[in-house]
Amino acid sequence: MSSPAMQKRAPATAMMLVLTGIAMLSGFLVVLTDQLTAPLIAENQRLAIEAAVSKVIPGSVSHRQFLLSEGKLLPFKKGEAGQTIHAGYDAHGRLLGIAAETGAQGYAGMIYLLYGYEPSCECIRGIKVLKMAETPGLGDKIMSDPEFQTNFDALDARLDSRQTALLHPIVTVKHGSKQQSWEVDAISGATISSKAVGKALNLSAQKLLPQLKPLIPELEAMGK
Amino acid sequence: MKRKTDNRIDWETFSEGLWRDNPVFVMLLGMCPVLAVTNSATNALAMGLATTFVLLASGGLISAIARYIPKQVRIATYIIIIATFVTMVDYVIQAISLDLYNALGAFIQLIVVNCMILGRAEAYASKHRPLKSLVNALGMGLGFTFALLCLGVVRELLGAGSLFGVDLFGENFQPWVVMVLPAGGFLVLGTWLLLFDWIKQRKTQSEGEELHAR
Which domain holds residue A136? Predict the structure, then answer.
């Protein structure tokens, strides 16, 4: 083996040393930043979810997260398979509603939203757009338009007699032609985005609510 | 005397990036974030400051270790250094505000390939003393932030009727939606470029006439 002095003169060794050194410094800095910011980021994410759940389950003060897997309710664990649901309770521990995430293809990419289901009225009480790339001023009205939001004051989501699907599928109808409580009145000029919201709700409600129904007593007991 | 001119830090070192060699309005570098994230003043400011931080940190570090880097691997080294600071900024923005992070989207990570930063590393930081590089990087970063704000303020005012999220014109304002869409970015950038070029031309013209008169 050559002496350290000789190694220094060899360009390949110098290159390797410099790159290794820089990579180590880089790794150190990135890990350091990650360690310092991880609790803050987790807290931010928790607050964002908390705020969203509070919005779709009006009046709820405490929330618990569960995993719904093969008809069973499991405590929430990150990275495990199953549908995540958020149960919202009032100050006395009474179950107010259940929030779940859903999504559908909008006009510009996927629209992800959180919706709140209230078992006592068997209806959807609120939606909150989590992520979307809809056109500003048109499609993004699904987030801000107050008239559109009134669709979800009490959107009918009753189950049929066999308890396997919705009695009336949730559909989006043309602006101004909403007749039934299970219809979503589209925003004029943003029909595709409005339809995507209706589709996402229908898709998730059809699948989730029949599974959720038998678990409601269990969820109610959890709040006590 | 000779040494003094080489490493002297003067107003020009700092102001170069602000005006004469403004990265956006003169060099037309880093156009991707300039057009993409300037749909509101807040986004523009955040992007500008994030880029300024990366410029400062990478410029300082590269300038300090430049003479130890073999020239065959210098670009690779610069990219690792820049990517490191960008990742740090990425985490910090997530820790400050998730809304802001979602609004800026992929463009934070894309600071890595902002040609302005690599350009400054190669053309300036590797050839000057750390302090001078830092002063220059600060000027460049602020020049970039200033340019982003120029676009962001106009686009938010016209496209949403607000500034930094504060509504200015009230209910009756009809937003000019195209301004917050990509097309608006090109329109506003073009108008600013026209304006800056016109000012510049007038200045050089009068300087030239002065020289001629002498």
Answer: 57-223
CA-CA distances (angstroms) from residue B102 to A88, A99, A106, A141, B6? Answer: 26, 22, 18, 18, 44
The nearest alpha carbon in chain B to A31 belongs to B88
Co-location of A67 and A13 in the same domain: no
Is the pTM of the predicted complex or chain greater than 0.90? no
Q: Sheet containing A123-131: which strands, arranged edge to edge?
A: A72-75, A62-69, A83-89, A95-105, A110-118, A123-131, A155-156
Q: Is the ipTM of this complex over 0.90?
A: no
Report CB contact under 8 Å: A26, B81. Answer: yes
The answer to whether residues A127 and A73 belong to one domain is yes
> CA–CA separation, B101 vs B108, rounded Å?
8
Q: What total number of domains does chain A contain?
A: 2
Cα A63 from chain centroid (whole Å) = 14
Grouping H, G, I as helix, E, B as strand and the rest as coil, residue A62 is strand
For chain A, the distance separating the N- and C-terminal CA atoms, rounded to the nearest angstrom, is 73
Whole-number Å distance between alpha carbons of B196 and A181: 57
List CB contacts (< 8 A) between B68 and chain A.
18
Kindly report, residue by residue over B89-108, the tens digit of the pLDDT.
999 999 999 888 888 878 88
Query: For chain A, which residues lie within 8 Å of any Cβ of chain B, measuring from their own Cβ?
Result: 11, 14-15, 18-19, 22-23, 25-26, 29-30, 33-34, 37, 40-41, 44-45, 48, 131, 135-138
